[in-house]
Write a structure and sequence with these properties.
single chain, Rossmann fold, Alpha-Beta Plaits, 5-stranded parallel β-sheet, 13 helices, binds nicotinamide-adenine-dinucleotide
């Protein structure tokens, strides 16, 4: 008989995701005492007492800093996220950001809003005033993309389609990302090279030690006169004081960002949006659907896709009897696990083991039902963090 899984949701999760968990197999709710998995968006889980029953956490979004990932790794619990599910939403906002600045749209809209519709001269004032907002077109200008991951690649592709020249910088670009880039994208070898050559510079790196304040006083020395800097990455990837100085010196024409910090907000050359990058219906649906599928695949079959702390591993079922083991990545674990199975008279039909950093994960299909004693003996091996028996 199929197992019933209990799913605790800590935030409003899109129906597009929840309906991937069939009601006959899944009980989903906000008051589940012993959940098998937790689905979360931005709720802070650091102070939460996460029940021992939890086998997986699914974050319907990209960042996982609201989740105690390290503590979950120590318990052998994967934390899934939805990389790329919001990339199109961010890409479209970046294009909007370039247009907002190139066509002076925020100033133009403020000008129109301030006109009195009852003023008989209003239409004349519109015609007289419009010269103050004349802009330029994106086509023919150069966009520099820093960070060519899920979002950066889509931005580069869209800009090429709009007739722009594109250069990209990403020293750690993945093979998949490189394949997905249009051939017209030129490779830059440094942030400085991008700043020197681009009319628009768009940042798409994660915030990490290596990227903190990557646009700073030194790199802005190279910036092309009148360039527009777009930051839909994170506030901390630019040195805001240096950006403001470059704006005041008119080296930078405009800073378009998704992070209206007290430093930049209100500056006349700043266009700041309220962290809207991923705020679309479609992105929320995509994230929820992706993460629900991944959690379901893990709970039912032990497969792992897009966990931030586990290796990716998918093994098609060849038997109804599967064991999934999370263990420390130390020598002789597979040997000890195989011995424990042999001692329980279990014949291994298929086995897959992968590791990532300190974490290793093993899927084993066996030819017969697994007694609870065998599960317990594997769980007792030093270094084993979690064991699950997954009968089909
Ligand atoms: N504004 C928003 O609402 C919003 C929404 C989603 C994501 N984001 C931000 O966008 C970032 C990128 O998202 P993604 O989905 O494209 O991530 P991703 O992991 O697919 O891509 C990040 C890319 O940055 C590259 N990179 C890392 N360090 C670099 C460095 N020092 N120089 C150049 N490139 C470097 C990586 O190699 C990778 O290709 C996220 O980390 C997040 O901070 C913002």
């Amino acid at each position: 008989m199929a197992r019933n899984f209990q799913i605790l949701v800590l935030n409003q999760i899109s129906q597009a995701g929840l309906k991937r968990l069939p009601a006959e197999q899944y009980t989903v709710g906000k008051d589940i005492a012993a959940p098998d998995a937790i689905l979360v968006r931005s709720a802070d889980m650091h102070k939460l007492d996460i029940p021992a029953s939890v086998r997986a956490i699914g974050r319907a979004g990209a960042g996982t800093n609201n989740i105690p990932v390290k503590a979950m790794s120590a318990r052998g619990v994967p934390v899934f996220n939805a990389p790329g599910a919001n990339a199109n939403a961010v890409k479209e906002l970046v294009i909007a950001g370039m247009l907002l600045s190139a066509r002076n749209l925020t100033g133009a809209m403020r000008f129109v809003t301030a006109l009195d519709p009852k003023d008989p001269e209003m239409e004349k004032k519109v015609e007289d005033g419009k010269k103050n907002f004349a802009g330029y077109e994106l086509a023919g200008h150069t966009l520099g993309v820093i960070g060519l991951g899920k979002i950066g690649c889509l931005v580069a592709d869209a800009a090429i389609k709009l007739g722009m020249h594109v250069m990209g910088y990403d020293p750690e670009i993945t093979v998949d990302a490189a394949w997905s880039l249009p051939s017209q994208v030129k490779k830059a070898n440094s942030v400085a090279e991008v700043l020197k050559n681009a009319n628009f510079v768009s940042l798409h790196v994660p915030l990490a030690d290596a990227t903190r304040k990557m646009v700073n006083e030194q790199s802005l020395e190279h910036v092309r006169h009148g360039a527009v800097l777009l930051n839909f990455s994170r506030e901390g990837v630019v040195d805001e004081a240096a950006v403001l100085a470059a704006l005041d010196a008119k080296k930078l024409a405009c800073y378009v960002c998704d992070f209206p910090s007290p430093h930049v907000n209100g500056h006349p050359q700043v266009i700041a949006l309220p962290h809207l990058g991923a705020s679309t219906r479609e992105a929320e649906d995509n994230c929820a659907a992706m993460v629900a599928d991944q959690v379901r695949d893990y709970l039912e079959d032990g497969n792992v896709q897009n966990a931030v702390n586990f290796p990716n591993i998918t093994m098609p079922r060849e038997s109804s009897f599967r064991i999934a083991i999370a263990n420390a990545n130390v020598p002789n674990m597979v040997g000890q696990i195989s011995t424990a199975m042999a001692n329980a008279n279990l014949n291994i039909h298929n086995m897959m083991n992968k590791s990532r950093g300190d974490m290793a994960y093993t899927l084993v299909d066996v030819d017969s039902a697994v007694p609870q004693a065998a599960v317990e003996s594997i769980a007792g091996i030093e270094g084993v963090l979690a064991v699950r028996y997954l009968p089909a």
